[in-house]
Amino acid sequence: MELIPQATGERVDVFLARELPQLTRSGVQKLLEQGLVCLKGSPIKKNAKTEAGQVYTVTLPELREVPIEAQEIPLDVVYEDEDLLVINKPKGLVVHPAPGHEDGTLVNALLHHCGDSLSGINGEKRPGIVHRIDMDTSGLLIVAKNDFAHTGLSEQLKDHSLYRVYECIVRGGFREEEGTVNAPIGRHPTDRKRMAVTTKNSREAVTHWRVLGRYGAYTHVQCRLETGRTHQIRVHMAHIGHPIAGDPVYGIKKPELGLRSQCLHARQLRFIHPRRGEPMELSCPLPEEFESALKKLQAQA
Q1: Active site includes 116?
Q2: Mean pLDDT, rounded, of the chain
Q3: Which of 1, 13, 48, 248 is most buried, judged by most C-beta within 10 A?
Q4: How does pLDDT run across 201-253, given as a tens digit for each residue?
Q5: Is residue 144 within a helix (H) or strand (E), and if so which, with residue range?
Q6: Could you tell me the residue range of the domain that residue 296 belongs to?
Q7: Are residues 75 and 167 in the same domain?
C-alpha cells in the first residue's frame, strides 16, 4: 500500500493513523516498530516527520488467528447480512478485550454469534470492529464479517460519509438552536485516562450539535460526528461548557437524574453498503435509563 502525505513536518504515526482508520494508534506504532513502513525502500523511525509528496510504502502484516474465547452473550441485532451486522450495544458492555476486561465483551459475543466469519483487519483483539463506542455509551455499532466489508466501511469513516448521530442530555442551556465544535482532541497532558481539547499531539475533531429539547438546567441534544476521536462528544460538550449528564469523567462527580453514567446514545447510522452500493439507514430507540431521565425533566418543566 502506498500513501502520499500532503504536508511536511507532521508526525508519521499521526498521518498513518488518519490514513488507515481501520488500525488503532497502537496498531500503527507496531507497524513502525516492525519496520513495515518504508520511505525510499528504508524503514522509517517512530519519531519521523512526513515529507510532502514522498511515497510511503506500508505493508500490513498477515492476519493472526483470534485467540479469544467465544461466549454466548445476548446481542440486540438491528441488521445482519453476509457482509456485516449492526448491533444495538447496551450500556456497560465493553467492546473488545482489554486489561481488566479480558472476557464478557462484545467481541466475545460476536465470535459466538458469527463463528469464523469476522474481519481480522483490526488485529487479534478487535475482530470485525469497524468503529468503537465507550463501555458506558449505548447504541449502534457496525461489525464487518469480512475484510472486503471492513475496508469499504473504513473508507467511509475516513471520508466522513459514514453518518453517525448520537443523542445526549447535557448540563445547561444553549442560546442557539445548533452549532459546530471544531477543536482538536488529544491525550490529556496530566491524566492519561482522559482526553482533552489540545493542540499538542492531537487530531482534528468536529462535532455538529442541535437542540432537541430544553429543560431548564438541562438540554436534550443531538450530536453528529464528522470525525470519530476517543470520547469526542463527551470532550467537546464539556469543552463548550455543557458536560453530558451523568458523566463522572468530564462532568460532575455526584449522581444526577438517576443516571449510572454518561447519558449518551448512538441513535442513527447512515452508510453505503460496501458490496451492494445501496444506502443504509438504521436507528434504534433510546434506552430505558435515557427515557427515564427525559421523563423526569419533562415532569419538572
Answers
A1: no
A2: 90
A3: 13
A4: 788 999 999 999 999 999 999 999 999 999 999 999 999 999 999 999 999 98
A5: strand 138-144
A6: 163-266+289-300
A7: no
